[in-house]
Design goal:
By secondary structure, the chain is α+β, with helices and mostly antiparallel strands.
Length: about 325
């Protein structure tokens, strides 16, 4: 977290425990900041749950048998403060707002830089000139380290170690679950295995086994999986407004051959447990069909799409389940 103690207290801490996650001391020689200052700022912005940290510019560690930190000071604090503000506004993929104070210590000037942790939705902060993942940094102990693909996954999951599909959806409750979607799951499961033991479970136990809910402090919490697969239509529209299927009909065999032409589209929403069957039915209705006379005497015929239902189902399920939500 950002350190609010006085400079004297921070110097005492440096000499007692050395640098740490939240506190960094840097020597500045001349009128230039150097890249390492901005790497530390980037790391403090990104590190999950650290709540930022503090950098002291103009504090050095002696090269001695028993090294101690002492104030060496800086020259032109106004210029360095301006360079810090400009760099934080232009070097990263987004502006970083820091707080810079010039502190007088026994005739020398130290710049105290307070760096806040950015909101989870804005992570990661990274150098625009380098890009991801190597342009982003994390704070590990007193060290700034370049991010890896695994680190980026942590940022994009909002600092949670849980995968996105089992994360709790805030503001979702049990009333947002659609009983018809659970009934559709029971029916589909019974068609595959009429003796499946979960058919005798309660609705809550089924959803818990499918990671669609979590039980925390004797309360039921709905996960992303639970809402998207078993949620009520109105609840999904409220909490995941972009979740829908657009079934678009294009004349001819080429995709968008005429950019100025008009297209027919069916907008379908709802829980995926029932939405999949609706999409399959819409596609099957549009496909040419073959017919077969089962009994010449009765004159009854059976129509089937030119593509087998299992092919349509596979395409639809893959399109929905492999999408990034």
């Amino acid at each position: 977290m950002i350190r609010r103690e006085s400079l004297e207290v921070l110097l005492t801490e440096l000499n007692t425990t050395d640098e740490g996650e939240e506190l960094e001391a840097k020597t500045i020689s001349g009128r230039e900041l150097g890249r390492s200052v901005f790497e530390t700022i980037c790391a403090l912005c990104n590190e999950p749950d650290l709540e930022g940290g503090t950098i002291l510019l103009g504090v050095s560690k002696e090269d001695a048998l028993f090294p101690l930190y002492h104030v060496t000071g800086i020259t032109e604090p106004d210029k360095l403060s301006s360079d810090l503000a400009t760099g934080c506004a232009t070097m990263f993929n987004q502006p970083v707002r820091i707080d810079v104070k010039a502190l007088n210590f026994r005739g020398s000037v130290v710049l105290k830089i307070d760096v806040p942790e950015v909101p989870k939705s804005q992570k990661p902060v990274y150098f625009k000139s380098i890009g991801l993942p190597k342009g982003a940094f994390r704070r590990v102990g007193p060290t700034d380290i370049k991010c890896t693909d695994e680190d980026l996954a942590l940022f994009y999951q909002g600092g949670s170690s849980d995968p996105f599909d089992v994360r709790i959806v805030r503001d979702a409750t049990w009333s947002d679950i659609d009983p018809a979607a659970i009934a559709a799951y029971r029916k589909a499961r019974a068609e595959v295995n009429p003796l499946a033991e979960e058919l005798h479970w309660s609705d809550e136990d089924i959803l818990y086994a499918l990671s669609s809910i979590k039980r925390l402090d004797d309360k039921i919490k709905i996960t992303t999986t639970g809402l998207l697969i078993f949620g009520r239509g109105a609840s999904i529209r409220r909490l995941f407004p972009a979740h829908r299927v657009d079934y678009i009909r294009i004349p001819g065999k080429a995709w968008v051959q005429d950019l100025d032409g008009k297209f027919e589209s069916i907008d379908m929403r709802g829980p995926m447990m029932t939405l999949i069957s609706r999409v399959i039915a819409a596609i099957a209705d549009d496909l040419p069909k073959t017919l077969r006379i089962e009994d010449n005497k009765s004159g009854q015929r059976t129509e089937t799409p030119v593509l087998p239902f299992r092919v349509i189902r596979e395409a639809v399920v893959n399109a929905l389940m492999h999408r990034s939500y």
